[in-house]
Structure formats: C-alpha cells, structure tokens
C-alpha cells in the first residue's frame, strides 16, 4: 500500500497532486469492501467487486509516480540513511500498529481459538515477523498469507523492496533504460497472466504466489516513474468525481475466468498509468479539496488497520453462517466503523508518533 510524501521544506514549493491523494483513499475503501465481499461471495464470477485486488497495482503505479516526483532531484544529495529514515518514519508506524491489532484479534477472536494451536513461541514469532515485515507464511487456516496477522502487509513488503531499489539504482536510470525496464515488467505481467490462466493476477500475498508480488511491483512502480519522467501529465477538467468514476470502472469491470488473462493485464499495463497521468493533470474544484485531503489522509491508515477485523469476519461467517441479508447490513456497518477507526488512529496515534520520530531522528 503507498502514501503521501512528507511535506518537508525542500518540497514546500512543489505542486501537490490532491486528486491523486483522493483517488488513493477511494482505492483503499474499495480494498476494504473487496476483502469483505470475497468472504461473503466466494465465487468471483458472481461478485460485483471481484477486481478490487487490482487496487494494489494502482497503488504501486501511484507510488512510483510520487516517489520519482519527490526524490528524483533530491536522491543524489539526500544519502541512503536519510532516505531510509524518511520512508521508515512515514510507513512503518502503521506496520507496527496493524501488527498489534492483528495480534489482539488473533488472541481474542470470539469465533476462533488459534492460540492453543500455535502457542506462545510461534505467536510471538508471528507478531515479530509482521512488525518487521519478514514473510512468515505458516498458517494454513489463513491461506498461508505472508503476514498472517495483517495480510495487506505483503504489499508494504514489496513497497519497501521497490523503495530500496529506487534509492540504490532506479533514480539513476535514464529514460531509455527505464522504458526498457517497464517493457520487461510488462512481459512478466503477461507471463503471470498466462501462468494463472482461468484465474487472476491477484498473487503476491501468500507463500504459494510470492514472486507474483515482485512482478506486480516491478511493472507498476517503474511505470509510475515513467509517467513522471516523460511528463505524461494530461491536463483535463474531469475533476475528482470524474476520476473516481474512471477508477471504479477498473474494479467493477466484469470478472470472467475465461478472459481475465486478457482484461487484467490491459487494466494494469495501460489503464492505471493513464489514470495516474489524468489524475495528475485534472483540475480540482475548491469544493472537493477538503474531501480529497481527507480521503488521502485516511488511505494508508485504513489499508493497514482493517484486515485484522476481516479475519474476525472470516471466522464469524464460517462459524455463524449468517444469511446474505444479514451480511448486507454487517458489511456496510463494518466498513464505516473501520473508516472511523482509521481516522482516529491517524489523528491520535500515527501523526503524533511520526512527529515525534521526525523530531528525534531527522
């Protein structure tokens, strides 16, 4: 999952892409709804939001654009340690917060009792590997997710890898070499699509599809950088609402096993970079400015704190077996409560903690 870059003095005069921030929040809400819906309706062909997992590819593409925009001119001078400090302070507090929530729901889920099965030692290891973003896919009860306490952390793992490669190598690449890298990434996406024929491009989250995550970040992150480097910013008057409609079209696109191997690569390879280019060039009216800011602000906290409660929802559905009429009430209420929780965590935990860390270490 990607975030808005810290507003340092060096960046104070640079343009801020409010609509891209707002779209990040919309995509985060889509992810939350998708995670509930894939449990409620496990036949993807019957699920209206079955392509919600593609939000991660949009996040990666947006991240490549934002990181290149924020650091391409600063990277030669900023130094490795300063870059890593900036990224860790921005990203890692919520990794730990999500891990703590994951541990609490692991221990106190009223519909499951995993602790006696895994014991103190393995439970502690589950927490530490989650908090330090070390893949540890050991729970078959949770589909051998890389991070069994907080599943979405898999994308943060690959986000960290992309950031490391960026500061060590990617920012130094000229446009031609970067374009060649994007082509390699595109070929890898097509290979994965053919490999998972009659399935989808959602891999990367588990031990069984680990390297698919590397492929997804390789293409989308470098494609986002390419949009920035070539200044493919398309001026338009779509506004925030128009961009939301275009973004949602990707996630609501009909899911069919027979042709996902064609449609999903098209969305990832072409449509998402186009959306980033349009979002960067869209004009924001004054009435949408606060909404865009709020949407962008809560996007990362929501992404990193919702899934521990989705685990509880999973065991609730397995044990209680509620009717769909019940779930159509439970899911919207749960999504709203998780958005409120994310806002409270952002305001009273994440922001104060990051301010403290910046004061102490920067």
Could you please describe the fold and organization of this structure?
By secondary structure, the chain is mainly alpha-helical. It has one domain (9-342). 70% of the residues lie in helices and 0% in strands. It has 13 helices and no strands. The chain has helices at 18-40, 55-71, 75-78, 80-108, 115-131, 153-168, 175-195, 210-229, 239-252, 260-281, 286-305, 307-320, 324-361. Helix 7 packs antiparallel against helix 10. The longest helix has 38 residues, at 324-361. It is globular, with a radius of gyration of 20 Å. The protein starts with 17 loop residues before the first helix and ends with a helix. Mean pLDDT is 95; it is low at 4-13.
Q: Please tell me what the overall shape is.
A: globular
Determine the number of helices (DSSP H or I, runs of at least 4 residues). 13
- N- and C-termini, Cα separation: 24 Å
Number of domains: 1
Low-confidence stretches: 4-13
Rg estimate, integer Å: 20 Å
Class of secondary structure makeup: mainly alpha
Identify the quaternary structure here. Answer: single chain
Helix residue percentage:
over 70%
Largest sheet: none
- The total of beta strands comes to 0
Q: How would you state the average pLDDT, rounded? A: 95
Write down the secondary-structure element order: HHHHHHHHHHHHH
Strand content: under 5%
């Amino acid at each position: 999952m990607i975030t808005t870059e810290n507003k340092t003095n060096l960046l104070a005069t640079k343009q801020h892409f409010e609509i891209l921030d707002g779209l990040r929040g919309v995509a985060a809400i889509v992810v939350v709804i998708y995670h509930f819906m894939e449990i409620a309706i496990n036949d993807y062909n019957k699920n209206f939001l079955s392509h919600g997992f593609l939000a991660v590819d949009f996040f990666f593409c947006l991240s490549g654009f934002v990181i290149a925009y924020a650091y391409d001119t600063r990277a030669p001078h900023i130094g490795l340690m300063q870059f890593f400090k900036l990224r860790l302070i921005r990203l890692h507090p919520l990794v730990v917060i999500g891990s703590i929530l994951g541990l609490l729901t692991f221990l106190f889920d009223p519909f499951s009792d995993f602790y006696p099965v895994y014991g103190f030692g393995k439970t502690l290891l589950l927490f530490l590997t989650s908090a330090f973003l070390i893949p540890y896919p050991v729970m078959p009860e949770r589909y051998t997710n890389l991070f069994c306490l907080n599943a979405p952390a898999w994308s943060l793992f690959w986000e960290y890898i992309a950031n490391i490669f960026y500061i060590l190598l990617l920012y130094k690449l000229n446009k031609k070499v970067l374009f060649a890298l994007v082509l390699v990434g595109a070929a890898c996406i097509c290979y994965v699509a053919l490999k998972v024929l009659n399935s989808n491009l959602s891999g990367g989250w588990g031990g069984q599809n680990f390297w698919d995550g590397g492929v997804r970040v390789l293409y989308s992150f470098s494609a986002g950088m390419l949009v920035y480097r070539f200044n493919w910013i398309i001026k338009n008057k779509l506004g925030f609402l128009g961009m939301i409609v275009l973004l949602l079209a990707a996630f609501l696109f009909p899911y069919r096993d027979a042709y996902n191997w064609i449609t999903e690569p098209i969305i990832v390879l072409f449509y998402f970079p186009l959306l980033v280019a349009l979002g960067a060039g869209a004009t924001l009216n004054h009435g949408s400015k606060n909404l865009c800011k709020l949407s962008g602000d809560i996007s990362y906290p929501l992404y990193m704190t919702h899934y521990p409660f989705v685990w509880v929802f999973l065991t609730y559905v397995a044990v209680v077996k509620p009717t769909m009429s019940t779930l159509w009430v439970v899911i919207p209420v749960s999504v709203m409560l998780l958005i409120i929780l994310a806002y409270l965590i952002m305001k009273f935990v994440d922001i104060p903690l990051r301010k403290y860390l910046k004061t102490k270490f920067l």
